[in-house]
Amino acid sequence: MSSIAWHYTVGVHFENICASGVILPATAYVPRRERPIVWFTSRDTFEPTACKIWRNRDGTVVLLGIEQTAELGGGLVRLGVPSATLIPWRRLPVAGRIDLRHSLSLEKNARQKGSDPAPWFCTLEPVAVSACIVDVYHGSAWVRVQPNREAA
What we know:
- The protein is α+β, with helices and mostly antiparallel strands.
- It has helices spanning 11-20, 66-72, 92-95, 100-112, and strands spanning 4-10, 22-23, 38-41, 53-55, 61-63, 76-82, 87-88, 120-123, 127-128, 133-138, 141-146.
- The protein is globular and about 40 Å long.
- The mean pLDDT is 86.
């Protein structure tokens, strides 16, 4: 784990992030009462919950691994900011107005995917790309493409 928290995304979403200049809080599947969130983790290899779900031609749904997510998502990108600037998971349910049952369900699903919520962080505000370190996944390594002195 590191003092940098990472927002993991796929290449096609990164294009939209760059076009807007910010990482916007996620609104998909967010219950009406809850606040949209930009998710981060201090896991510096990859966050299993960032793997995408894929529907095969026969209608079956599969959870992709990191390599499949990279291939079908146009690559993998991570954007990093200092974790001290974010809300830790243990404080998120109150800050994000997340129902206890929903937060427990998020934790359970994450553990089933091989994740651990302990290193999760978030913010309720958009995050400027210019404030982030940006790394691109190449094979089995992350390569820095945008250093940020403030986030380092």
